[in-house]
Write a structure and sequence with these properties.
Strand content: 25-35%
Domain ABC transporter: 23-253
Protein name: Phosphate ABC transporter ATP-binding protein, PhoT family (TC 3.A.1.7.1)
GO molecular function, one term: ATP binding
Radius of gyration: 18 Å
Shape: globular
Bound molecules: adenosine-5'-triphosphate
Keywords: ATP-binding, Nucleotide-binding, Transport
CATH architecture: 3-Layer(aba) Sandwich
Pfam families: ABC_tran (PF00005)
Largest sheet: 6 strands, mixed
Number of helices: 8
Length: 257
């Protein structure tokens, strides 16, 4: 059986569902000098689902996320994106396919239109105003924002512009690193609703690093818990309720961050 043919068995309360992986890690390790940051991680992020990735600070979550779009390569092991080994996908294709949004995604001084059109301009292409408006509407911002200076937008609106920028690439995987941790509660809810809509309506696969366990339970279909460079627990969101492993249980009870 090839990796691609493997499926994730997800035990829900009443049924067993089969999920196809969007991204699969096979014994992935990552070392910097003598420090092992990821230790033989094997597991998958299911396609068309939201996976929340939680764990104490320094667990290796961001390092792992950066492997999903080729910003980092494993020291050993293999990463498969939609069934293809990472090294068989061109970097440009990979960045398009898997868009990343960070806690403070860079927005440059200039209009929202300038920010949206920059990636295309770098490829020598034009972004039509119609397409820009359409994308803005998809993230819940109307046409009037096109000419607004991005720096004057609220944190939540800036995050929406960053998400819109990845949608212009027609990414089918969204990699989110703490995208709501700097937002006020109402912007946080708006961004959560947007991500849920993109997942439900456009079937975008989402991998979401969050320090907020309640958010992970609220938003995820599937969860990964990492501690000290290892994947220690995975499964549907009930994996975030309880663990037989004492160190995971301590993390879930908030006893170490
Ligand atoms: N290039 C590097 N050189 C040395 N150490 C690194 C490097 N990149 C990451 N690390 C270390 O690897 C560990 C994991 O880092 P990573 O940012 O992936 O953790 P994280 O789980 O995302 O943490 P946080 O939740 O605090 O963002 C940390 O101890 C970090 O200091």
């Amino acid at each position: 059986m090839t990796i691609w043919e493997k499926v994730i068995r997800l035990k829900s309360e009443t049924t067993t569902r089969l999920y196809e992986p969007a991204i699969h890690f096979q014994k992935v390790s990552y070392k910097v000098k003598d420090t092992e940051i990821l230790k033989e991680v094997t597991g998958s992020f299911p396609k068309h689902r939201i996976t929340t990735l939680v764990g104490p600070s320094g667990a290796g979550k961001t390092t792992l996320l950066k492997m999903c779009n080729g910003l980092l390569s494993p020291t050993s092991g293999e990463v498969y994106v939609e069934g293809l080994p990472l090294q068989d996908i061109s970097p440009i294709q990979l960045r398009r396919q898997a868009g990343m949004v960070l806690q403070n995604s860079p927005v440059m001084d200039g209009s929202v239109y300038d920010n949206l059109s920059l990636p295309l301009r770098l490829q020598g292409k034009e972004l039509s105003e119609e397409k820009a408006t359409d994308i803005l509407n998809q993230v819940g911002l109307d046409r009037k924002y096109l000419r607004r200076n991005s720096r004057n937008l609220s944190g939540g609106q800036q995050q929406k512009v960053s998400i819109a920028r990845t949608l212009l690439n027609e990414s089918n995987i969204l990699l989110l690193d703490e995208i709501t941790s700097a937002l006020d509660p109402s912007s946080l809810r708006e961004v959560e609703e947007l991500i849920r809509k993109l997942n439900e309506v456009h079937q975008i696969t989402v991998v979401w690093i969050t320090h907020n366990l309640e958010q992970a339970k609220r938003m995820g279909h599937y969860a990964w818990i990492m501690i000290d460079g290892q994947l220690v627990q995975t499964g549907n969101t009930s994996a975030l309720q309880h663990s037989d492993d004492p160190s995971v249980e301590r993390f879930l009870r908030g006893e170490f961050k």
